[in-house]
Amino acid sequence: MIVIKNKQRDLISLLVHSKDLFKSSALLANELALSDRTVRTYLNDLKSIIESHGGSIISKQGYGYKLQIKDRTAFNLFLIEHHLLNRNVEQANCREACQRKHHILSLLLLESQKIDIEALSEQLFISSSQLNKDILEIKHQLKPYGLSIKKSRSLFYVEGEEKAKRHFILSYFFHEASINFLQHLTYLNKFNDVISFDTLTIIILDECREAKIKLSDVMMQNIVLHLSLSIKRLQSGLTIQNLDMPPSTKNTLEYQVAKKIINRVEKVIGFCFPKQEQMYLTLHLMSKSNFVQNDFDSELYLSLTNLLFRIQQETGYFFLNDEQLKNGIIQHLKPMIVRLEQHIKLKNPLLDEIKANSPELFELVKNYLNQLPELKKFTIHDDEWGYLTLHFLASIEKLKNEQKAKVLIICATGLGSAQLLKNRVECEFNERIKIVATQGYYEIDLALLDKIDFIISSVDLSSKVFKVPVFQVSVFFTENDIQKIRRHLSAPNVFISAQKRPISATTPLSTLDNFIDASQIIDDLSADYFYWCKHSQSKEQVLDCLLDLLAINETRDYKQQILKQIENRILLGDIFFSPTIVVPHPAMPVGKLSKIGIAIIPDGMFWDHNYPKIHFIFMISPSIYQNSTLSIMTKAIIKLIDDLEMQSKLLKVQNFDQFKRLFIQLIEKEV
């Protein structure tokens, strides 16, 4: 084996990272802390070595030196052989550990299973000692919630109160999705200085489930809204007066549940609720749990829909299709009608602020909703109209957000870095971007990808294939990162998720900071990995053929490993990009080299009953080291989805050279 000195290795790395750019020997010497003469000597020594492994060092008078790669496969194998491309083992191990713990917690809590370490170690291909370490870390995660992991014979399980389990599930697996509309309201954000929305939600959820009072998401939102407003009123010295309810109310289940909720809230906020507030919460719970008049709901829904249609025609406000608004108003009107019948006047501490900031909307709500048949017989105070206006304000806020680009933020691990990146993105692009969620690398929710426009990630996702663009950025969101996003948002063909067809989105994209020539990218395609299916064959036969081609220059167990990882990826979600194109790829990279196996089936191939006629298979095998141009290749594949004319041309090719000439046109559009 050739011996390469450390400084020579550093020199090769410099040339690789600045390939196709000339660098003077003086500049290289400065970066390596060597003399100009030593660098030239090293370059001369390395010239023959690099030329024998698929590359060449070009020198040009007045410009300097640059690396040119002639055989990408041979050169990448040379880099791997001499450890010039190092896999980020630490990051991979961290990611895999987080993924395992997430899976174990899912089994223990979401599925309420007891787990056998030995069986799980075989299933996950990991040692039982490593799994025991994972269990130990999980114990520390559960401890603050009063939960522990116990062992019965060979089975592990979580022991603790059901309430505590629900608390952990809510905080670990979910992200307050049911109350997002509240958090978007500027007015209501003032309430979370003493108690957060999620804390209120947990308390209400616990007590209502314990008492078997069933609440829908909308009902939950309304009770959270009520309690938030109650706290605001109490802070302002305002309480409900003369709430006249029958004495028998104290014997009801709802009264007991309201009492438990109030007691727990009082411990958090540090001051007491008057008894009248407890009675009013009882009234809310009674209206939520007992007001199940389906005919009333249907009639009110129809009246409200007709009214919103008139509002849209006469004012231009697009409230008609907002089902959350309709359900929210219906659920709000039920206790409101009970209040009006009982002649209970509810003071609204936000009324002056609502009138000052949204006078037009306040008058619109008052004038139109007053026409609802269910409300015509009542004299309604402005305080009540103010509460109803809040629902319309939430709808307007949501409409504004739907015009923004919807973004998923991904970080390696830890909420700290994710929150830092989220805050910086929001600060810079608050008017143009809506952050749908922040997730760890190991917990990417593929179902969420249909609802977003692009991904901002602080980790390298080039080995994964998505149908939306991916921008890799620093967790500190530098000026260069900002310019990347700004250029994308300024592009005339950017689709907003609310308006786009799911299949027309673009793919993973590590943005091109430096110009990349299409001819260099096409080098990643090779006739060695191309299969033109002349005769009818089964899915298994075609995939087996592609895997045999991709296994060239790989380890002995490559085929077995990539098949396992492809199966893992299929479990996570679809690999079909269209009715004619399928893109199998591993959940985790296993190959030394980045490559794409291509099968063209002119007569079509039966994949399953949902996809009976597949014409193109692009089997992507990312490298465990680096995938510099893979994202551009996958982007070109996505281009092919909507280009039916190009699909037709590709189905007529007879060999790889014909395919290559056509496919490079798709790449050039992206580059």
Question: What would you note in describing this structure?
Answer:
The chain is an alpha/beta fold. It folds into six domains: 6-81, Arc Repressor Mutant, subunit A, CATH 1.10.10; 94-165, Winged helix-like DNA-binding domain superfamily/Winged helix DNA-binding domain (Arc Repressor Mutant, subunit A, Orthogonal Bundle); 178-290, PRD domain (PTS-regulatory domain, PRD, Orthogonal Bundle); 294-401, PTS-regulatory domain, PRD (Orthogonal Bundle), CATH 1.10.1790; 403-504, Rossmann fold (3-Layer(aba) Sandwich), CATH 3.40.50; 518-670, 3-Layer(aba) Sandwich (Mannitol-specific EII, Chain A). It has 26 helices and 13 strands. Strand 12 and strand 13 form a beta hairpin. Helix 2 (25-32) packs across helix 3 (36-51), helix 5 packs across helix 7 (128-142) and helix 17 (359-369) packs across helix 18 (382-402).
Q: Using the CA coordinates, give the radius of gyration.
A: 31 Å
**What is the CATH class name of the largest domain?**
Alpha Beta
Distance between the termini: 38 Å
**CATH H-level superfamily title of the largest domain:** Mannitol-specific EII, Chain A
Show unreliable segments.
87-95, 174-192, 290-295, 492-517
Secondary structure: number of strands:
13
The total of helices stands at: 26
* Percent of sequence in beta strands: 5-15%
Instruction: Give the strand line-up of the largest sheet.
Output: 7-6-8-9
Largest beta-sheet details: 4 strands, parallel
The CATH topology of the largest domain: Mannitol-specific EII, Chain A
- What is the approximate shape? elongated
Average the pLDDT over all residues and give the rounded result: 76
What structural class should be given to the helix and strand makeup?
alpha/beta
